[in-house]
Amino acid sequence: MPDLPESDAEKDVSPEERDAERRRRRAQFLRDLAEARELRDRVQPRRAKTARLRHAMRMRTFRW
């Protein structure tokens, strides 16, 4: 995707405010992702169970 030109409003924003906005958007995204996973687990309980078992097996065989 090509770089988009910055608007005048974006140039006036300090790096701290830009980082705070990025963290806020990331937190919202992670909340939405967790909500979607919970919904999927409720709708497809068998698939959720197998995913949990698969994850547990991976963690058992993982070398620290």
Structural class computed from helices and strand pairing: mainly alpha
3D shape: elongated
The whole-number mean of residue pLDDT values reads 85
Our measurement of the CA-to-CA distance between the termini, rounded to an integer number of angstroms, reads: 38 Å
Report the major sheet. none
The helix content is over 70%
Report low-confidence residues grouped into runs of 5 or more.
Answer: none
What is the strand tally?
A: 0
Compute the gyration radius: what is it?
Answer: 20 Å
Following the backbone from N to C, one meets helices and strands in this order, namely HHH
Number of helices: 3
Strand content: under 5%
SSE inventory with pairings:
Layout: H1 8-11, H2 15-43, H3 45-61
Notes on the protein architecture:
With 64 residues, this protein is mainly alpha-helical. 78% of the residues lie in helices and 0% in strands. The longest helix is centred in the middle third of the chain and has 29 residues. 0% of the residues are buried.
